[in-house]
Specification:
The protein is α+β, with helices and mostly antiparallel strands. It has eleven helices and five strands. Among the domains are: 163 residues; 115 residues, Heat Shock Protein 90. Helix content is 60%, strand content 9%. The two termini are 64 Å apart.
């Protein structure tokens, strides 16, 4: 009879307190093992004659071969190559038919039923049906032609039915294949979900890193420059300039706190109003009435809003550092399929403080835009009233 085969669970985490996954609709492995033991014990108890010489020795040898062949069905399928399995099962049904003919009584015919059922599980359908037919013909032929002393105890039609269990075995094999395919698909989906989750985590880490850079790197660098300037001016005794540097440092701290609030909103994915937030950002940077809005104002996706605000923040910080006193103009254009932000600053009108940036600002802008399938250009202004300044233009779909 067919047995339950456990399907290996590759690539998934071990389940606590659980054994091999049983195939739905089949018996548990211990049931099949108990049936095997029952068949062998029943044969030892009923098959006769048994002895150490003559017919009894032949029956004993055939009974041993049948018992080993039947017990081998519990070995994992990947332990026995297909060709060896074909030889083993062919030998099993031949010895099962021989046992029916040689023995004078007993339940030896059960070996044929159970082996044929397992053939349907172990071998391909074409091979299974061929061996099942061979088993039925051998067992039926032994009984029909009255070969051996036990032919009077069993009808020859019973021998033909020994090939029937192969159909149950083939059905169980199909169920196993379907279950294994479903399990493999589920494991593949789980691995894909894990990979996607890892990618999402890395993406989120990159976004947080950019936000931290935008808020802290520039703000702290500016505050540090003002404090260093104040330290240097103390030695000169110019207290007015010391106070001015100190006030600038305080002003930058307040600005950093506001930027930190924007960052917290962005990390929480709060839907900030783009126009109002951009206006407030310009005013706190000292650039009133610098925003021009074109097109029909509409709500854009939160991610687009967040990244446009970060690009504006980065551009305004760079303008304050590299072009202090220069005029800043910001244009926000709502197109049919995209939103474009252009920030242009004129040349510096005050002395530029020494010190270089981290170099991560423009890289962060490009990363933000690339993640949203947008475009960005950044470079010096070469003509017009803002010649000598700098312009950043970003367009993001949405």
């Amino acid at each position: 009879m067919p047995e339950a085969q456990s399907v290996p669970d590759h690539g998934s985490a071990p389940r606590q307190g659980a054994g091999p996954r049983p195939v739905p609709g089949q018996d548990h492995p211990w049931v099949q093992r108990a049936l095997t033991v029952f068949v062998i014990v029943a044969a030892l108890w009923t098959v006769r004659p048994l002895g150490l010489s003559g017919q009894g020795l032949v029956v004993a040898v055939l009974l041993l071969i049948n018992s080993v062949a039947l017990a081998a069905r519990h070995l994992p399928q990947d332990w026995i190559p297909p060709r060896l399995a074909l030889v083993w099962l062919t030998l099993g049904i031949v010895t099962a038919a021989a046992l029916i003919g040689v023995s004078s009584s007993g339940s030896g015919y059960l070996f044929a039923y159970f082996l044929v059922g397992h053939i349907g599980v172990r071998l391909e359908p074409r091979q299974s049906l061929t061996l099942a037919a061979l088993c039925g013909l051998l067992c039926g032929g032994v009984l029909y032609f009255r070969l051996g002393p036990g032919h009077n105890l069993l009808p020859w039609v019973l021998g033909l039915t020994t090939g029937g269990p192969v159909l149950v075995g083939i059905l169980n094999r199909s169920r196993q294949r379907a279950f294994a395919a479903a399990l493999s698909a589920a494991e593949s989906a789980e691995r894909a979900a894990r990979a996607e989750a890892r990618t999402a985590v890395l993406t989120e880490r990159s976004r947080i890193a950019r936000d931290v850079h935008d808020v802290l790197a520039h703000s702290l660098a500016g505050i540090n420059m003002q404090l260093e300037l104040a330290d240097a001016l103390i030695d000169t005794g110019d207290l007015d300039r010391v106070r001015e540097a100190n006030q600038k440092a305080h002003s930058m701290v307040k600005e950093s706190l506001k930027q930190a609030q924007w960052t917290v909103h962005a990390l929480r994915e709060d839907a900030l109003p783009l126009v109002e937030t951009l206006t407030a950002m310009l005013e706190t940077s000292g650039h009133r009435d610098a925003l021009t809005v074109a097109g029909t104002v509409r709500e854009v996706p939160p991610r687009v809003t967040q990244n446009l605000l970060r690009i504006a923040q980065e551009s305004l910080t760079n303008a304050a550092r590299h072009a202090p006193g220069g005029e800043v103009q910001v244009e926000l254009t709502f197109g049919a399929a995209s939103t474009t932000l252009r920030i242009r600053n004129g040349p510096a009108t005050r002395t530029v403080s020494t010190g270089a940036g981290s170099g991560m600002g423009l890289i962060g802008m490009r990363e933000r835009v690339a993640l949203l399938a947008g475009t960005i250009t950044a470079g010096p202004v070469t003509e017009g009233p803002d010649a000598g300044g700098w312009q950043v233009e970003a367009g993001i779909p949405g």
